[in-house]
Amino acid sequence: MGVEQGTFVQKYDLLGCIQCGRCTGGCPVTSRTELNVRRIVYESIDDEKLEDLSNKPEIWDCTTCNTCAIRCPKGLEPFEVLIGLRSMKAEEGDIEPTARDALESMFNNGNPWGKPAAKRTDWMSDIPGVKKVRILSEGEKADVLVHVCCTAAYDPRIIPLAKNLVRVLEAAGVDYGFIGNEEKHCGSEARRLGEEGLFEYFDEENTELFSKYEVNRIVTISPHCLNTFKNEYQNLNIPVMHYTQLVAELIEDGKIDLKGEIPKKVVYHDPCYLGKKNLVFDEPRYILNKINGIELAEFERSKERSLCCEGGGGKMWVESSSKAERLAELRIADAKNLGAEIVAVACPFCLLTLEDAMKVKGFEEEMRVADILELLGEVI
Ligand code: SF4
Ligand code: SF4
Question: Using CA positions, which residue lies closest to atom 3 of ligand 2?
């Protein structure tokens, strides 16, 4: 399988592990699947076992939520070992057909959804109050370069997020621009599905693409794009922020007038890649508190302890090895117990998984799941 002796030991600092089990103790997936990340870290020290470990279906249950890394007292990132094991399978093309199709589409179309690159900007039509969305030409200047995200560009349920962001930027008079049809997948899900080479391709391609414009910062709709650009690209020297950070700044500077009201009890679900990975906890709550009428509640498991929705880590394209109740359903049940009428999110994957869970639970009559961009769209 092309694994060199001691590769995992050095790459993931496995000898630093003291087998304390805090990773497994904190792992939200352990309760519903066979995944035991402590054991996998331990067994990965032995090169002879790597092939067997890579064949375990539960390595695909990890959502890369980062809880194990936060908890590890030795500074390890246990989930990276699981990604390494996935890479061994991806190298051989021995992965689920849905994941293989997503990876092929990333390479051929620049997005995981099997959609043509030429249609990436179709979402830009019919935005109330906006005649034309600005697409930057090479060498053009702008304060903010917006990276839309494949899901927000193509998925009919998520497209309204992109449209509402344009409305917010226009209302606040932000000097912004988009890339257009040349925009590509950030590479986050390629890496988490084990395709390191494809990730490196996106890193190089996108870094070159971004450098064609004279912008002060890149703003993302998805926390997954944020994390990848900010923490995983090797040579990207432009500051990257999530839209909630920009919108909080605009509200603070008095540039957005939140005229309407939403008289509802709202609970905010921290997306793993925004919260636990990038420690953006305050800005989403700041925005929600600035919307008239909102009564903001907190989950018991929030911020660093927030429960994962299971949408990250490539899980949008990989079936769970377990039929036990999904974490998203537990999250929705928690929201119901709090009496929340709206579950607010700030991530396309969280929106899709939690909304689906809400429908499975049959709670559509009494609550809804909405991205903060949708709530903003209702009050500007
Ligand atoms: S938390 Fe860290 S040190 Fe403890 S068992 Fe897990 S990987 Fe090892
Ligand atoms: S990243 Fe999350 S799901 Fe994956 S092993 Fe760590 S705690 Fe479990």
Answer: 62
